[in-house]
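Entry 0007
Protein: Dipeptidylpeptidase IV N-terminal domain-containing protein
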Amino acid sequence: MESAARAWPHPGGAAFHPGQPGGASAVHVATGAVTELQSHWTTSLSSIQGPVFSPDGTRIAFCAMDDFDHTHSTYAVDAAGGKNLQVLTDQAVTPTDWLNR
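Output (structure tokens):
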């Protein structure tokens, strides 16, 4: 695992970690349990940047590159297990905060 300086924490006790190339992990801070998020993704992603947790900690938004067509997009995924990968925008936007609309 890369250095802890590259982990992005959520106040609810989880942290996002970029993990291996093309992947990402959620880490439960108190127990150290690691959940590989990319195992449910049908799209291979790399260059993951700027993860932001939703206020309730259930989703993570981030910018990444699609390894197939080399486009950058902004995505959201379930924090507990990596399911429901969703493209939020087809532009490379590095999230800085979560807005509910």
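Curator remark: The two ends are 35 Å apart (CA to CA). The longest strand covers residues 45-53.
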